[in-house]
Amino acid sequence: MPTSSREVTTGVETGDSPLGIVLVVEDDELQAMGLSCLLEGAGFSVTCAADGAEAMRLSERSRPDLILTDYRLAGGISGIETIAMLRRRLDAVVPAIIVTGDTGAAIAGEAVKAAATLLYKPYSPDALLAAIRVHLQANASAPGGLQDKGGADQ
Known about the structure:
By secondary structure, this protein is an alpha/beta fold.
């Protein structure tokens, strides 16, 4: 469970390694705890951050295989902006999923532009896990794993 600083990395090992490292960026502590429990139970290693700045710090210690972020975050940096900052810092097109309750066309357009999958709240746990698995499997089959930024419109 996340600590008061919420800088936590946990996971269930499956054989030699977890299924992947998911960086959860969520400012609602209950939501973050729920996502962490769901993902750990499915075999993923999870790192939780409350905002974009914390996500940047945590990515220095543990490179995520996937970013899962809420669209609206505290601190004035959106989930879309957080994804862009992380990808620049990591110099890779890390797969990303944005969750939101806002069904406006503008957010959908931003997600497409950011090459991120958009899931609308409420979503089912199965839909979230399926989206994560699709991203990680596609990324694993790409030459060299995480795609470098060459050619990506960031």
